[in-house]
Amino acid sequence: MRVLALNCGSSSVKSALIDTAHGQRLQEMQVENIGSDHARLHAGDQVRELGSGIDLPAAVDELLAAYRSASPEAVVHRVVHGGEGFRDPTLLTDSVLQDIEQLSHLAPLHNPPALAAIHRALAALPDVPHFAVFDTAFHSTLPAHAREYALPGDIRQRFGIRRFGFHGINHAHVAQSVAAYLKRDVSKLRIVSCHLGNGASVTAIDGGRSVDTSMGMTPLEGLVMGTRAGDVDPGVLLQLRREGHLDADELDDLLNKRSGLKGLAGTNDMREIERRAAAGDQDCELAIAMYVHRIRKYIGAYAAELGGVDAIAFTAGIGEHSSLIRRRCSERLEFMGALLDVASNDSLKLTSDQPVAAFNAADSRVHLLAVRADEELAMARATAAALGRH
Ligand code: AMP
């Protein structure tokens, strides 16, 4: 089945037309830097400048025009926040769209662009089914002790406060990819999956089920991210509210857009941070040290929760491409049976033919792996399965 997967971020749209029977990408395109002066469309080796003034709906229109002649049989959209209700790939109807709209305040950077893209795609391809898959869905298995915050029950219930977790489409894909690579049954594996992209989260996966994850009710909790602070003492926010005179919108902007790597080093591009750190820039060195420190804390915590680990996997932009971050996260883990092989880590390169690669020493009990994120393939397969097609 030919499924068009549309994966909208806050400033980019990835897309792929996938033949789900063979797991093959028939066509793929990506628009980056949306909203800036240099929005670009990448199609294979070709790059086309879209110029300034391109917003997300216009970028989606560009992509849809290019796919129309390929006649996709279904379209699938990634939606970050599915709240309590959405746990499975869901056919998009008017009432489902309304429900997703109501969840926008929980993921203000992500749900609104996805909705804008969905409306454009429904208009451009009205005759095929459109599905949504949700980043929160994989974490619906969180046990209560990981899901709940230690707030009074009446407050939690009244305001629907709980951990949801995100990046579930890719964490689920990582678990399946690790199992396939190791030729083991996923139900027998304990995996710590580190999704290190512009957004970042760690998930503890026990037997294929998410049992804890670093993002919370919103995608703000946990790791140091591109522009998000991750874990912050809530008392800091109270103080900023009272003494810094920041209102809710200003705090939102601070935590979502001006913190994390960008707040520490002035950019959220890890390549640039690594280059500047190597040249002696102290802010960039600190940003890397804090970034790695936070990941290691979660790896240690999740190893304790899982009662041991069989594999630690690194995925997404930084996890797949930065040998420096993988190395620094994996050093001094010998106590838990994870032995790094520096040379394999340095030479590691993932491709569509080799989407998983190991960088542990031969005598390591724990597998250290890099896994290519492929949300579009996972989305397309989930859609085909929901339609009873493979
Ligand atoms: P993603 O959100 O998965 O596209 O990941 C974006 C992040 O990956 C950005 O911080 C990029 O700087 C980072 N990244 C991409 N390629 C590399 C690389 N070769 N080395 C270090 N970081 C990279």
Describe what you observe in this structure:
By secondary structure, the chain is α/β, with parallel strands linked by helices. The protein folds into 2 domains: 2-134, 2-Layer Sandwich (Nucleotidyltransferase, domain 5); 184-375, ATPase, nucleotide binding domain (Nucleotidyltransferase, domain 5). Helices cover 39% and strands 20% of the residues. It has 15 helices and 14 strands. The mean pLDDT is 95. The chain binds adenosine monophosphate. Adenosine monophosphate is lined by residues 197-198, 226, 268-271, 274, 316-318, 321-322. Mg(2+) binds at residues 7, 375.
Give the secondary structure arrangement, pairings included.
Elements: E1 2-8, E2 13-19, E3 24-32, E4 39-43, E5 46-51, H1 56-67, E6 74-79, E7 90-91, H2 94-102, H3 111-124, E8 130-134, H4 144-147, H5 153-159, H6 168-182, E9 190-196, E10 200-206, E11 209-213, H7 234-242, H8 248-257, H9 260-265, H10 270-278, H11 282-306, E12 311-315, H12 316-321, H13 323-330, H14 342-347, E13 356-358, E14 367-371, H15 375-386
Helix pairs in contact: 1-3, 10-11, 11-13
This protein binds adenosine monophosphate (AMP).
The site of adenosine monophosphate (AMP) has 13 residues, from helix 10 and helix 12.
Subunit structure: Homodimer.
Pfam families: Acetate_kinase (PF00871)
Cofactor: Mg(2+); Mn(2+)
Which hetero ligands occur in this complex?
A: adenosine monophosphate
Please provide the count of β strands: 14
Enumerate the strands of the largest sheet in spatial order, edge to edge or round the barrel: 5-4-3-2-1-6-8-7
Low-pLDDT segments, ≥5 res: none
Oligomer: single chain
The value of Rg in angstroms is: 21 Å
What order do the SSEs take from the amino end to the carboxyl end, as H and E? EEEEEHEEHHEHHHEEEHHHHHEHHHEEH
Shape: globular
**What is the mean pLDDT?**
95
Q: In the CATH hierarchy, what is the class of the largest domain?
A: Alpha Beta
How widely separated are the two ends? Answer: 7 Å
Any idea how many domains? 2
Relevant CATH superfamily of the largest domain = ATPase, nucleotide binding domain
Percentage of residues in helical conformation: 25-40%
Name the CATH architecture of the largest domain.
Answer: 2-Layer Sandwich
The CATH topology of the largest domain: Nucleotidyltransferase, domain 5
- Please count the helical segments: 15
Binding site for ATP: 14, 195-199, 269-271, 317-321
Subunit structure: Homodimer.
Binding site for Mg(2+): 7, 375
GO molecular function: kinase activity
